[in-house]
Amino acid sequence: SLMSLEDELTCSICLSPFECPVTIPCGHNFCQDCLLATWKDSYSCPQCRTLFPSRPDLKKNTVLSTVVETFNLRTSKSATGPPAKEEEECGVGEQEAIRCDTCMQAEATHTCLTCMASFCEEHLRPHRDNPTFRLHQLSQPIGDLSERICPDHHKLMELFCSQHGRPICSLCLQQVHKGCSFTSPEEQRNIIELGLRDKLGLLDGNIEKTVSAVFQIKDQQSKLKDAATKRKATLAAVHHQMRDMLDQEERQAQRDVDLELDLCQIKLRDHMKRLTDNTAKMTKAKEQINALLSQSQSLAFLQATFDFNANKFNNPSVPRINLDSKKVTATQAFTALLKEHLTEILKQ
């Protein structure tokens, strides 16, 4: 029960749960500050009174410290219920440096998930040089190792249950999760990362195609303007020969071409807006995936999902729009025919 476990995790000096527990040669555990306060002229165990000829070398009992953190977390949840959202968000971004559990001074560079302790570069040397530690699992510094401890069995959660989608320890695999398919957290992390990176690749490809389509549309706009200018010049050359007689007809023909150009431009602007909106949506999805990837070292990342529907991002297309509408073509044909008729009339 929690009460009996609390007795085992209580310092016999301050009668409170251990804070930075250390173990002395006789096997008893105390808070580091409590023990140092009792050591003045001699060095003895406050509990069994064993006398030590010299001051023992004190090192943090990382396993006991993790168990105490887990116990405190469970008791606080049962006493106060789930914390308020404001309290959970309090202190975000104010992470303290993780200290070496051996010297308790230097900043830790790695955490050993086998030893359940963090080490600075100096005290990590045995893990690098000694073959005995070759199979120990090293990771980036982890501040709260309690989240890696199974709340039911107080063992390191070294496995990930694929069926239930949660981290488990070896005892969980033998009991509640017996018969479940499992993998390692690293393999599960790689699976999620690979899936997210595939989605990023698809988004990058679609964004690149969309940007290319927008560039082609802008180029087409420029060509349409050039084509319109040339056609207006052709019409102007024809009407110049009969300006005195057909000035009003020329102005009407010019307005027809300008109107058709405006219609073409409106169609292209509408299509380009749809492509631009699609680019914004894909960019937002890309930012959300990068946000998930930035949390790849947390346990929450192992259960992360990202709803991604590739069908929403269709391949961009460039519409074929030109000035050869029936009205423009008819206007140009009428002008040419009128010139022929006028020429025949003038010849007579």
From TrEMBL:
Keyword Nucleotide-binding: no
Top-rank taxon: Eukaryota
Keyword vocabulary terms for this entry: Metal-binding, Zinc, Zinc-finger
Domain RING-type intervals: 11-49
Gene Ontology molecular function: any one: zinc ion binding
Taxonomic source organism: Gasterosteus aculeatus aculeatus
Protein name stated in the entry: Tripartite motif containing 25
